[in-house]
Amino acid sequence: MTTVAILGFGLSGRYLQAPFFLANPNFRLKTIVSNTQNPQDIYPGVQKATSLEAVLADPEIDLVSVASPNETHFAYTQQCLRAGKHVLTEKPFTPTAAEAEELIALAKQVGKHLFVFQNRRWDSDFLTVQKVISEGLIGEVLSYEAHFNRYKPVLNPKKWKETIAPGNGILYDLGAHTLDQAIVLFGKPKSVWGQTFTQREHSEVDDAFDVRLDYGKIKVTLKSSLLVREDTPRYIIQGTKGSFVKYGIDVQEDHLKAGIMPGMPGFGIETEANWATINTEVGGLHLRGRVETLPGNWAPLFQNMHEVISAGQAPLIDMQDIVEQLRVMEAVKVG
User: Fold this and answer.
1) Distance between CA 261 and CA 268 in Å, rounded?
2) Residue-number span of the structural domain to which 249 is assigned
3) Which of 271, 283, 267, 265 is CA-nearest to residue 247?
4) What is the structure's pLDDT at 317?
5) So what's the pLDDT on residue 314?
6) 270, 320, 283: which is closest to 116 by C-alpha?
7) Is the pLDDT score of 281 beyond 80?
8) Are residues 277 and 174 in the same domain?
């Protein structure tokens, strides 16, 4: 069994991670660090701690999840590795590719494993996109467009999210997911162009972006904004045989907030209203119809961490993908 501590009890620690650690019998979620809330009110069997030092001093803790503010990720991950702990770090892993490579080298030096919480590789919509592309249902991909929009005109009450600091802003937040998915599908781009914008009143950080990745024949467009009220397609993919258009986003986050836990009936299953539309050619026949969305399930990310730590299995997330993701974000911010 892998014994776990989570640093932070915000959205990620409370809703996106703790339920999966608790649902997996290979993990024991022992401690959650929080200075403002009592995690035991929600997870009675978990201990509360108020400092990273208390976690690092506990010899039972095998894996520390760094779910704290972005600007702490590098320092906390470094401290955990030096204390002999495996580490799961929330995205963005670090503000820079150089810092990421430094932590990767340190993990190898101390013989510990590093993981990044790129949970949206196992979103229902992205799993469906991967299946459609890998099965060649729209032929050879020519263009891929992904949107990750929200309507949040009011500034985030978590002041750290609205403060100019390393790794802050929407590119390092939602952009880390859209970039990760593009890299999973297509690898390292030949060239990068992009811009970030500040659109909300009184905002100090970027809250919108437009990024273009050139893969030669394949052109990738990634966009996000916090001022999109009317839903737009989540994915628009054009291929040599047809088109794929998908509205709606994975429902796991909403389910977890509503108390629907992993393993419960209906968890991660999207309603038919948001199934994708496909217009293509299959076996010489023109086909236009709906594509049922595959169930979303972030559990494989957690199971893989246990298997890597306990049995030496290969990680599902290559840390070099994370380095490439950060290089793209740095190029956009500089350019």
Assistant:
1) 9
2) 120-297
3) 271
4) 97
5) 97
6) 320
7) yes
8) yes
The reported pLDDT for the residue numbered 36 is 85
Q: Is the pLDDT of residue 334 over 90?
A: no
Q: State how far the Cα of 333 lies from the Cα of 121, in Å rounded to an integer.
A: 24
Fill in the amino acid letter for 213. Answer: L
Are residue 109 and residue 169 in the same domain, yes or no?
no
Q: What average pLDDT score do residues 258-271 get? A: 96
In a domain, 141, yes or no: yes
Length of the chain: 335
- C-alpha 83/C-alpha 116 separation (Å) is 18
Query: In Å, what is the CA distance from 280 to each residue of 133, 250, 288, 290?
Result: 12, 24, 6, 11
Q: Where are the beta strands (DSSP E) in the chain?
A: 2-7, 27-33, 47-49, 63-66, 86-90, 114-117, 141-147, 191-197, 208-215, 218-225, 235-239, 243-246, 276-282, 285-291
In a domain, 335, yes or no: no
pLDDT score recorded for residue 166: 87
Rounded CA gap, 160 and 151, in Å? 19
Structure tokens at 318: 């290559």
Express as a percent the part of the chain with pLDDT over 90.
95
pLDDT for residue 67 is more than 80: yes
Please name the amino acid found at residue 304: N
Phi-psi region of 283 (alpha: psi -120 to 50; beta: other; left: phi over 0): left
Tell me what pLDDT residue 159 has: 87
**Listing from the earlier edge strand, what are the strands of the sheet with 2-7?**
47-49, 27-33, 2-7, 63-66, 86-90, 114-117
With bands split at pLDDT 50, 70 and 90, how would you rate the model's confidence at 245? Answer: very high
- Picking from 94, 56, 88, the residue whose alpha carbon sits closest to that of residue 73 is 94
Hey, what are 84's tokens? 């002999």
- Distance, in Å, from the CA atom of 152 to the CA atom of 227, rounded to the nearest integer, reads 6
